[in-house]
Design a protein that fits this description.
With 333 residues, this protein is mainly α. The chain has 14 helices and 2 strands.
C-alpha cells in the first residue's frame, strides 16, 4: 500500500501485482505464421525426405511380395482368372520331382561355388593386405570381373567349356585326358557354372575381406610376432578371429546369391537353358520358377516356388542370427 501511495505521489504508475490464481498473468502473444510454418517444417521434413524410399519399396517390393503370396494360393494361368486352390500349389511342389531336383541342384551349385570362392577371396585379401608395389592396380584388377556383365562372362565361359572346340577340352587333350561333356553331364555342367560364379565374385569378396583386415589393430600382429608366431600362424590365430563377423556376412550373402542363381545357368544352357539342360541337370529354383511362370504359364505354381525360396532365405537368416548369438555367448569372443 505504501509503495502504491509513493508511486502515486511521484506520478509513476504502480507496479503490476504478482500473478496468482485469482489474478493470472497476461496470455502470451499469438504465434506468427512464420513460426508455425517453421515448427511444422522441423516435424515433417524428415518424413518427407525418407518417404520416396518407402513409397518405392511399397510399390515395387511390398506389393509384389504380397500379390505373389496371394497368387500362390490360386490356380492362375496367363490371361485367365484366378481360382482358389489353398495350399494345393505347395502340396504339388512337395510331390514334384522337378522341384526336388531343382532344390538339390541349387544346393550343390551353391556349395561348389561358394566354398572355393570365399577361400580364394581370403587368400587374395591376405596377399593384398601386405605392402606390395602396385597394390592399387591389383585391387582394381580383382574387382574387374565383378564389373563385367553376366551375359558377357557366361558367353565367354560357354565357349571355353564347349565340348567340341572349347579351350578347356583342348588343354585336357594335351594332358592325355578324354574330352568332357561340360553341357550334358550333371557334375561337369554344375562345375562349369560354378566356375563362372567363382570368377565373378571372388574379387568382390576379397575387397570386403581386405577392408576388414585393415581394421585389425596392428598391436595384435606385433604381439604375435614377439611370441614367435609365423605369418601363417598370425593369419590363423589373429586375422581369422578378428574378421569372423565379416566372414559370416559373406557366407550369408553368397548363400543368398546361390539360392537366386539364374543368369549363369540360363545363358550357359543356350536354347535348353530354361529347363536347365537336356535332363534338368543344372536347373535351379529360379530357372524352375521362370519355366513354370512364363513357359508353361502356371503363375500360381511359380508364385509358390518364389515363396518357398523366400522361406529358405528367411531360414538362412535365422541360422545366421542363432550362430551370431552363440558366438557372443562364448567366453572370450
Amino acid at each position: 500500500m505504501a509503495t502504491s501511495l509513493r508511486a502515486a505521489a511521484d506520478g509513476t504508475p504502480p507496479p503490476a501485482p504478482p500473478s496468482s490464481p485469482t489474478h493470472p498473468s497476461a496470455p502470451p502473444p499469438p504465434r506468427s505464421r512464420r513460426s508455425r510454418l517453421y515448427r511444422w517444417d522441423l516435424r515433417l521434413s524428415p518424413y518427407a525426405f525418407v518417404s520416396p524410399f518407402f513409397l518405392t519399396f511399397a510399390a515395387f517390393g511390398l506389393f509384389p511380395l504380397l500379390y505373389t503370396g496371394w497368387l500362390s494360393l490360386h490356380r492362375v494361368e496367363l490371361g485367365g482368372d484366378a481360382e482358389w486352390k489353398g495350399l494345393d500349389n505347395y502340396a504339388n511342389l512337395a510331390d514334384s520331382e522337378f522341384f526336388w531336383n531343382a532344390l538339390a541342384n541349387t544346393f550343390t551349385i551353391g556349395v561348389i561355388s561358394t566354398v572355393p570362392q570365399l577361400l580364394m577371396a581370403l587368400g587374395l585379401a591376405h596377399l593384398l593386405n601386405y605392402k606390395l608395389r602396385g597394390r592399387g592396380f591389383f585391387r582394381v584388377a580383382v574387382l574387374a570381373p565383378y564389373a563385367t556383365s553376366i551375359a558377357a562372362a557366361t558367353l565367354v565361359f560357354a565357349q571355353l567349356f564347349n565340348t567340341d572346340y572349347g579351350l578347356i577340352n583342348t588343354v585336357l587333350g594335351w594332358a592325355g585326358f578324354d574330352p568332357v561333356d561340360w553341357e550334358s553331364s550333371k557334375w561337369p555342367s554344375q562345375i562349369a557354372i560354378s566356375t563362372i560364379v567363382i570368377w565373378r565374385w571372388t574379387g568382390y569378396n576379397a575387397l570386403i575381406y581386405l577392408a576388414a583386415m585393415q581394421a585389425v589393430p596392428q598391436d595384435l600382429y606385433e604381439a604375435a610376432a614377439l611370441d614367435g608366431a609365423s605369418r601363417w600362424r598370425q593369419f590363423v590365430s589373429v586375422t581369422i578371429p578378428s574378421i569372423r563377423p565379416t566372414i559370416l556376412f559373406t557366407v550369408i550373402v553368397s548363400t543368398i546369391g546361390a539360392t537366386q542363381l539364374f543368369g549363369e545357368p540360363m545363358i550357359f544352357g543356350g536354347s535348353l537353358g530354361v529347363s536347365g539342360g537336356s535332363g534338368n541337370q543344372f536347373q535351379t529354383l529360379s530357372l524352375l520358377m521362370y519355366e513354370k511362370g512364363w513357359v508353361t504359364g502356371a503363375l500360381g505354381q511359380a508364385s509358390a516356388i518364389a515363396w518357398v525360396m523366400l522361406l529358405l532365405l528367411l531360414l538362412i537368416g535365422a541360422v545366421r542370427i542363432l550362430f551370431t548369438r552363440a558366438n557372443h555367448k562364448k567366453p572370450g569372443v
